[in-house]
Design a protein that fits this description.
With 194 residues, this protein is of the alpha+beta class. Helix content is 41%, strand content 22%. A four-stranded antiparallel β-sheet has the order 4-5-7-6, with helices on one face. Strands 1-2-3 form a three-stranded antiparallel β-sheet, with no helix packed on it. A three-stranded parallel β-sheet has the order 8-9-10. Strand 6 and strand 7 form a beta hairpin.
């Protein structure tokens, strides 16, 4: 994550819906995470094989999560990809070893571990407070339904920003990614001002 973002300084990176956190001189991984890797990879291989011939449907394999994307698929291919996904994922879902996280035209399988983006926000907030010896005000931007856990965790203690038009518990709203870029550029400019 650090290489892709290219940011300097004491930055925290959270991935896999907050189950992996990499911070300044610290890190956190949900303890049960590694034990689910083999099962997720087995499911990933089966889904990838089943959807291989379907243009526009693709599987994103994040090692510890598997996401079927169908946004670019035709309606018929989307239906076939989703049918294959459910057929192959249902046994693990029913067994409670993985859980489903739905997004916009995406079906993601994650380890069924009680942890979400809100938990990650609280963990990072506590670590920053410990490191700085002062209470911090979290700022969180997100556009997915899974970001609602973080918005709820922040509550009135910080700033939560939904990107897009869907209903949300966030305290603020930006219309699109271009507005996010504008906001971030302004924040960078003000932090560099004398």
């Amino acid at each position: 994550m650090r290489q892709r973002c290219g940011l300097d300084g004491p930055v925290y990176y959270a991935g896999l819906h907050g189950m992996e956190i990499d911070g300044p001189d610290t890190g956190f991984t949900v303890p049960q995470l590694a034990s689910r890797r083999d099962l997720l990879q087995e499911i990933a291989r089966s889904i990838a094989e089943a959807i291989g011939p379907l243009p526009g449907a693709f599987l994103e394999n994040k090692d510890l999560s598997v996401a079927l994307h169908v946004r670019a698929a035709s309606p018929a291919d989307r239906e076939q990809a989703e049918r294959a996904f459910w057929s192959l994922a249902t046994p693990a879902l029913d067994a409670g070893t993985v859980r489903l996280q739905r997004g916009e035209c995406v079906f993601e399988l994650l380890p069924d571990i009680s942890w979400n983006k809100g938990d990650a926000v609280r963990w990072i907030e506590a670590d920053v407070t410990r490191r700085l010896g002062a209470v911090v005000q979290p700022v969180y931007l997100g556009d997915d339904r899974t970001d609602e856990h973080a918005f709820e965790a922040i509550g009135q203690r910080g700033v939560s920003i939904i990107v897009g038009r869907r209903p949300s518990r966030a305290s603020r709203r930006l219309p699109d990614p271009a507005a996010v870029e504008l906001l971030l550029n302004r924040l960078v400019a003000t932090t560099k001002a004398p």
